[in-house]
Amino acid sequence: MLRTLITAAAIAPFIAGAGLAQELSELEVREIHDRILTIDTHVDIPTGYATHLIDPNTWTRLQVDLPKMRAGGLDAAFFIVYVQQRDLDEEGYATARARAEETYQAIMRMVRANPERIALATTADEVEEIYASGRLIALIGIENSYFMGENIEEEVPLWAARGARYAALTHFRNNQFGGSSNPDLSAGDPMEDPGLTDLGRRLVELLNDHGIMVDISHVGPRTSLEAIRMSRAPIIASHSGARAVYDHPRNLTDELLEAIRDNGGVAQMVAFRSYLRAIDPGLTAAIAELRTEFGLDQPGGWERSTPESRAQYQERVAALRAEYPDATVADMADHIDHAVAVAGIDHVGIVSDFDGGGGVRGWDDASETPNVTAELLRRGYSEEDIAKLWGGNVLRVMRGVEAAAR
């Protein structure tokens, strides 16, 4: 597949160390990268995507758009239907459902407006067929199934038909399905993860039935283990880190990594700064002040903000981060190394969480994607192993989920 080569200067810092990459030129690293099907399992998009506000076929201020995907050899992305957690009542469900609809329509506008450049895939075979055609690939993931309310018997088949291929059980705060990795004590959530509810167990069954991967990122440890153990299909942790490398509640313990391995699933290691290493407290305080300035510290603040204000906020955050030591591609690779050591090379993958807070020095937008491949080569991973990490393992899990569907 023809792709635009990124500059040698962008890759060079990541192949200067020991290992295989030391013996490879920048062009050789790029050639290896371009032979690999690359899938990013978590990319957020604003609801104004593919409108007069944001044209994804141009180089935008977002971390992911079609030109950046081409420039960085990022072949496929799960674009995310995200909803913020609200109260467990009909008003909250209805508000979240409307937000989910807006984001879904944004994804579909992008695909419909650019049929010669990108296509929606709903199966592993379709991913490979679109890849072979030379087009980019869009997939759909759900971040927080909360918006389905209690009407999951109708909602799950609907979203399966629409093409959603993974669904996270929770997000921040516990919900009607189970415990979150980040419970909200001020909202009455207990400190200890309560585990799957009866409705949560039924949700796992329905997701299995309809060929949707159960996603345990953002899910509490007990709820995650219960979901893994009851799922008859492989599961995914779509964007997490390794807790043994950095102790953060959003990261996966070794027990969970082993459970994912035993289930046949995949754990995607995320390029999210605050999940990879300790953050300078000065930066944390400065970003908190910035969030207050932009009204993002209030419930629903991000949803109410405009694309322009979000872009301004992200630019200000980027300027702040330039003043402080930042997490790097190497920090993310440390998490990959640990996850591979615990779960095995067949059960680990790579994810950015771009435009949802993700990005590290060296991989701060889709155009810099080859730097991840360069770092893995530097650490001695083979091309075959890197192909598994970048997409092969996710496709295997998708096929397992498809086979388990009824």
Describe the overall structure.
GO terms for molecular function: metallodipeptidase activity. InterPro entries: Metal_Hydrolase, Pept_M19. This protein has 16 helices and 9 strands. The chain is an alpha/beta fold and 406 residues long. The protein folds into 2 domains: 27-277 and 327-404, Metal-dependent hydrolases (TIM Barrel, Alpha-Beta Barrel), CATH 3.20.20.140; 281-326. Strands 1, 2, 3, 4, 5 and 6 form a 6-stranded parallel sheet that branches. A 3-stranded parallel sheet has the order 7-8-9. Strand 4, helix 6 (152-162) and strand 5 form a beta-alpha-beta unit. Residues 1-9 have low confidence and may be disordered.
Largest sheet composition: 6 strands, parallel
Number of distinct helices: 16
- For CATH, the homologous superfamily of the largest domain is named as Metal-dependent hydrolases
Number of strands: 9
Uncertain segments of ≥5 residues (pLDDT<50)?
1-9
N-to-C span = 35 Å
Question: Which CATH top level class of the largest domain fits?
Answer: Alpha Beta
Strand portion, in percent? Answer: 5-15%
CATH architecture of the largest domain: Alpha-Beta Barrel
Radius of gyration: 20 Å
Secondary-structure element series: HHEHEHEHEHEHEHEHEHHHHHEHH
Structural class: alpha/beta
Number of domains: 2
How does the overall form come out from the CA principal axes?
A: globular
Helix share bin: 40-55%
**Would you tell me which CATH topology of the largest domain applies?**
TIM Barrel
Task: Name the average pLDDT.
Answer: 92
Pfam families: Peptidase_M19
Organism: Glycocaulis alkaliphilus
GO molecular function: metallodipeptidase activity
InterPro entries: Metal_Hydrolase, Pept_M19
